[in-house]
Amino acid sequence: ILIANEFKKNMVFLLWKFIQCMGGVPLFLFFLILLSVSLFAVIMTPLRALTLPQAFLIVVTLATVLNALIIALCNPDLTVYFCYSQFMLYCLAGFLCREKQC
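Below the sequence we write its predicted structure tokens.
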């Protein structure tokens, strides 16, 4: 009922909470671009030609975005649940470093 009264205002508020849960505007844009490029790559290539690194990037990006979305909607004050997103970011950094042979 509260969301229906001022739908646009409440949706903007939820979007802003989601962006804050993602780590701010820069990280949100990074994941949005990464997700867009990954989905474009999946659409343009057959599913059987999907490599393990591409699948890993897609899964990490989706898991991070969905985790932040669920936390933003349910209870943004419980920072304990952000450890999953942080762990995925560490895995992503290690994966990208390994691919570039840091």
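Residues 96 and 102 are 9 Å apart (CA to CA).
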